[in-house]
Amino acid sequence: MNARGPHTLRRPIRELPDELISQIAAGEVVERPASVVRELVDNALDAGAREVTVKLIAGGIRAVLVEDDGHGLPAAELPLALRRHATSKIESLGDLENVATMGFRGEALAAISSVAEVSIASRCADDTQARRLDARSGEITPTARAVGTSVEVRELFFSTPARRKFLKTEATELAHCVEAVRRHALTRPDAGFAVWHEGKLVQQWRRVADQGDATARLTDVLGAEFIADSRSVSLDLGVLRITGRAGTPASARSRADLQYVYVNGRFVRDKLIAHGVRSAYEDVLHGGRQPAYVLFIDIAPDRVDVNVHPTKIEVRFRESREVHQAVRRAVEASLAEAISQASPDATRLESSALPSGSAWPRSNSRFDYNAPTGAQVALSLQQAAVLHAREPEAPWGASLSGRDDTHTAPSVATEVDPSAWPLGKAIAQIAGIYVLAENAQGLVIVDMHAAHERVVYERLKASLAASHIDAQPLLIPATFAATAAEIATAEAHADTLHTLGLEVSPLSPTVLAIRSQPAALAGGDAVELARSVLAELAEHAASSVVQRAQHEILSTMACHGAVRANRALNLDEMNALLRDMERTQRADQCNHGRPTWRQITRRELDALFWRGR
What we know:
The structure is a single chain. The chain is of the alpha+beta class. It has 19 helices and 22 strands. An eight-stranded mixed beta sheet has the order 5-4-3-6-2-1-7-8. Strands 9-10-13-11-12 form a five-stranded mixed beta sheet, sandwiched between helices. Helix 1 packs across helix 5 (about 110-115), helix 13 crosses helix 18 (about 570-585) and helix 14 (about 485-490) packs across helix 16. The protein is globular, with a radius of gyration of 30 Å.
């Protein structure tokens, strides 16, 4: 009989030895050298450090040394620092529910010392001499160092060689270590950070002298290009405040490598927040592009649980739906600025982008926390469809919107300073597709179909207040094998599905039938649509799912209703389009996330013709 078979002799239950317990626990905390760096820098910042230096050998595999100028540890407490669940940061359950420090579990040093050689050297302000503790021998000896603490970790995973084999190359591990320090640097401009490798300085972020200026640290860490290609985020709800920067859709990336979220100063990965951000970009981001953003969320400690995972990189919110909605609205407000409202100085970072711990201004967000997200205008979706159908027929010589207001486009004969409008004065049309305009910076090129599509789409959204979407019955119901969760969701959210123009009902204990779908999406894959909506309903609030589905239908309508390519426009019509773009939210991208216009500066034009050389 195989030793793994059902007749294997039963082993008695016994207590695990302390060393094995520590090594098992270390597996949850220490994954690679970067995990060690993160935990040690956490401790340094909790100790009040203003300068933190990280020194690495072999990408941190051979050695990690973290030095700080914090308040240090008394010699008598050095052995306690290496014991499991020994900490100075909490004493009671009340402290745990109001954690304000980076560390608090008392596990990191104990876990690290179980899989590596560790020594700690520390000195307090009133000590005459520093003391060094060797974790293996427990010996404490005098040593030389200034006030603060040094923790040295050598030969990571020497006692568990199987785990050491899973480490990557030295260059890869070094990159992870630098990223771990970068995450701290972003949220702590009051501290300086330096990373050394094999005796060479590889990265440094100097302490920001003026704590009211977050520009220097964010620019230093993420680069001036990110600052120029992002907009300020600011929302203050009292118990919840969100600040930071959200990248423009045009600056989206192929990878999600520039997305940072902090909760009360702690870097976290949270699917709820990520979904809230993504939903704010949903109709301005093209394909699988990833937005770039840095968000600092400051929330009352009793409204968030940071004791979810030993690495402290996950959190749980008491009111998760409210946090999701607040994040979405804060980012939406940042992205929704009309072109004419955008600041001409894109590299300037407002004080509202300060991370947690800085002076927080009151929010200037246009969103009310409990307000509906769409304008409540008494028009049904059918009426909105009629509006969009008539709109392209409006006299272009006045305004694409058909409105008579103070922004009516100038006549061809009117002399206009190109700097009078952000998108300038129309001068020509190319190939029946592109509008050329001159502004103060140089030449503007507009994709007229994409631009008008956004104008029509935003107008339809503002006019929509229908309680349901028109449905088209299916002659033959579409059926699909459904999971128990999908069937339960379909039954629980029947009314919401009806609002979306979907009728989905159980045909058997394992099959769902789709009997109608949105009329505007007739001919689409009904099964794929139903599965997608059911998955959204199972994970998110019904109201947000309804809104996204409505917007998807309006986007389809706007695409068909926008002016088509190869239509010849006169200058008045071109100027009318430019003025409508300047008043329209999210006018930089069409409904599918593609750019609607591009600026070519005088300097770029001069370079094309070698002027000034």
